[in-house]
Amino acid sequence: MTTIFAHGQAVLPDRVLDDAVLVVEDGLIVSVSAALPGAVPRGAIDLRGAFLLPGLVDSHSDGLEKELRPRPNVELGLDFAVTSFEGRARAAGVTTCYHGIGYEVSVRKERTIERALQIVHSLQDRASSGCALVDHRLLHRLDARDPNALAALQRALDGPVSDDLVPLVSFEDHTPGQGQYRDPSYYRKWLEGSEGLDEQEAQRRVDDLINERASRAWHRDVALRWLSDAAAAGRARLLAHDPVTEEEIAVAAKHGVAVAEFPTTLEAARAARAHGMDIVAGAPNVLRGGSHSGNVSAAELVAEGVADSLSSDYLPSALLAAVFRLASSPVLPLPAAVALVTSGPARTVGLTDRGTLTPGQRADLVAVTVDRGWPTVRLVRTADDQLGLVS
């Protein structure tokens, strides 16, 4: 099956090709060229000057959790939430989505290990249904201090591994005083705002959590050693979540970590670059103009050349918004900004078949206009759509 897209501004890796014609055959890009007068075949899809981008690759999305529980004390059915969030992601231009699966027990985030396994099953069922509108994949998020979480993750990873499906595992410790909440006052303020606690009660809750998790700090080394062995055997691709210091990055590199995810300081990001790690920053951080937890600005990481990709974290629409905000400033030209949500994350997660508008790549495509300064997704086509694999 051949599909032709015409009269779009194709964002290529190194430039924007005005009035482009892109040809797709059997779900793959065959050619991208400038339109010639009278040379565009009848039946081509007219993009009317919209930007044509590769489909967005989101390496870290927690949005499904919010879809499951849109309001306090309201929980929707899991299969419905997966389908509903899928539509939200696709409408934001996301064609490959790595869903964060939290292997942990967190009352604050309503996470349990049993729930994590249920989400995995539901996503896998949707992915194999022939109805999915995006490519659903998994990002396994391991609480470094939870022995039961590690045991569950070991079972989840006990199976065959293919080259393009090496599991992603994020090594995390969300104890106040660590990582994202290295300043525990931000955790306390979150409790005050979200649960209506006064400062003293919120501080008591923070202290109790720190003390409770201190009894399991020994498990960090156990979990990291196991993950290191899994990475060395090619059974996992490791991400260090919320690294703070150069020393943390050095330890992570020693254990085979390939990706620094949401470094909280410029020091950590620079150290990750020195160790050859891919670096992921948050698109909402760019959109907001800074971190909500007092950490380094993602735009600063981009400007310093120590960010390879942006993830949605919890808001799919933030990806394109961040791209066009960066491209409208002196920070980056548009092709480099687009790479942060396409080829950059594709490389980060180990996918080589998508992320650029070049021959041989998957024809995951997004057409975008910019209206009053903000991007609007006008069309999304995936390789599976064009192969007729989505029923």
From TrEMBL:
<protein>
    <submittedName>
        <fullName>Alpha-D-ribose 1-methylphosphonate 5-triphosphate diphosphatase</fullName>
        <ecNumber>3.6.1.63</ecNumber>
    </submittedName>
</protein>
<dbReference type="InterPro" id="IPR011059">
    <property type="entry name" value="Metal-dep_hydrolase_composite"/>
</dbReference>
<dbReference type="InterPro" id="IPR012696">
    <property type="entry name" value="PhnM"/>
</dbReference>
<dbReference type="InterPro" id="IPR006680">
    <property type="entry name" value="Amidohydro-rel"/>
</dbReference>
<dbReference type="Pfam" id="PF01979">
    <property type="entry name" value="Amidohydro_1"/>
</dbReference>
<dbReference type="GO" id="GO:0016787">
    <property type="term" value="F:hydrolase activity"/>
</dbReference>
<feature type="domain" description="Amidohydrolase-related">
    <location>
        <begin position="247"/>
        <end position="368"/>
    </location>
</feature>
<dbReference type="InterPro" id="IPR051781">
    <property type="entry name" value="Metallo-dep_Hydrolase"/>
</dbReference>
<dbReference type="InterPro" id="IPR032466">
    <property type="entry name" value="Metal_Hydrolase"/>
</dbReference>
<keyword id="KW-0378">Hydrolase</keyword>
